[in-house]
Design a protein that fits this description.
two-stranded antiparallel sheet, globular, mainly alpha, 2 strands, single chain
Length: 156
């Protein structure tokens, strides 16, 4: 029979996994419905965020940062280039590789996406009682460390 502490960890871990996935799905659905066409999927918005933060990043670097397969990121890049959100150039350090750059359309769309997401989460937090808002705020450092631990476990 597992120790009581192990049961608590297992139950908490399972509930956290379900809550995070559910919150992500709900937020993505609400944001997607209100976005102008072409609508950005979550992975596309995250890729635009990465490229905007690190102009010139390559597909493999973006894939690593997003914890996605390089071929998945390459597919996203192709669509975002076609939609005018990213510009692909030869990497000056390695002509066989591509360097990715945000376009003005990317900056506008990403800003809109971020403003809508922030608004959605502000509204959700605002609907909570003060005690719950404080509990969520107090949990953020632990959740950040949890995300870091997951990221470290994934590293080769």
């Amino acid at each position: 029979m597992p120790a009581k502490g192990a049961d608590v960890v297992e139950g908490t871990a399972e509930e956290l996994a379900g809550l995070v996935a559910g919150i992500h799905r709900l937020a993505r659905r609400r944001l997607w419905q209100s976005m102008p066409v072409p609508r950005l999927r979550g992975a596309e918005a995250e890729l635009l965020r990465v490229v905007s933060a690190r102009p010139g990043i390559g597909v493999s670097g973006a894939a690593k940062e997003l914890c996605l397969a390089a071929n998945s990121v390459s597919t996203l890049v192709n669509g975002l280039v076609a939609d005018g959100f990213l510009r692909r150039e030869s990497d000056p350090r390695d002509g066989r590789a591509a360097a990715l750059f945000p376009t003005a359309a990317c900056a506008r769309r990403l800003r809109d996406w971020q403003e809508r997401r922030a608004s959605l989460f502000r509204e959700g937090m605002g609907a909570l009682p003060a005690q719950d808002r404080a509990a969520v705020a107090a949990a953020l450092p632990a959740l950040r460390r949890f995300a870091d631990a997951l990221r470290e476990e994934e590293a080769p």
